[in-house]
User: Fold this.
Amino acid sequence: MTSKNAIKLTLAILICSLSISKSKAQDSTKVTQPIEVVSLNKIRLSLLGLNFEREQKVGKTTSVYFGGGAEGTFIYQTDIFFDNNFNFTTNTKSDFKIYPVLNAGFRHYYNFEKRVKKGRKTINNNAGYLGLDVLGVIPTESDTIYGYQINVMPQWGFQTWIGRKINFKLALGPLVSLTKVDTYFNVGGKLGFNFLL
Assistant:
């Protein structure tokens, strides 16, 4: 074997060895990302409120949560009335107050493994989920327009990693609000940050 061929063969073996070891190193970093839910204590700062939440793992990709805090509630209602002559009148009510709230629900995370394959972080339950949220609004005055309110929202949402102890959260879904006066159907949403304790 000539020296030129020996150098080429040595370089080829060296390049192959480095590329194999590098690909194994990349695979090992992907494996370290969790593909299961973990139990977490959170302080949740949302668009209209501040809450404490405990998320408890109950299955590989399922968790239940419960919590409480204070939420701002904005209600805007317009009633339109027609008489026999097709004349109409409107009556508009609006209300914004801060109420104590209790909430509970469950989440089923569905894309842990897909996120790991794409090289994204899944630490602290950072994944998409489907779930159900039940929020009870406790009135602070007996003469409020609506009194108590219970919101039930099937939801699609996701959490994404911002920092070691901070997640961004978005949840959307159809909302049913039950009050002592009536039942309302709407689109609900939650937008905010989770600060992990």
Remarks:
- The CA atoms of residues 27 and 117 lie 9 Å apart.
- Residues 21-31 have pLDDT under 50 and may be disordered.
- The chain is about 20% helix and 55% strand.
- The radius of gyration is 26 Å.
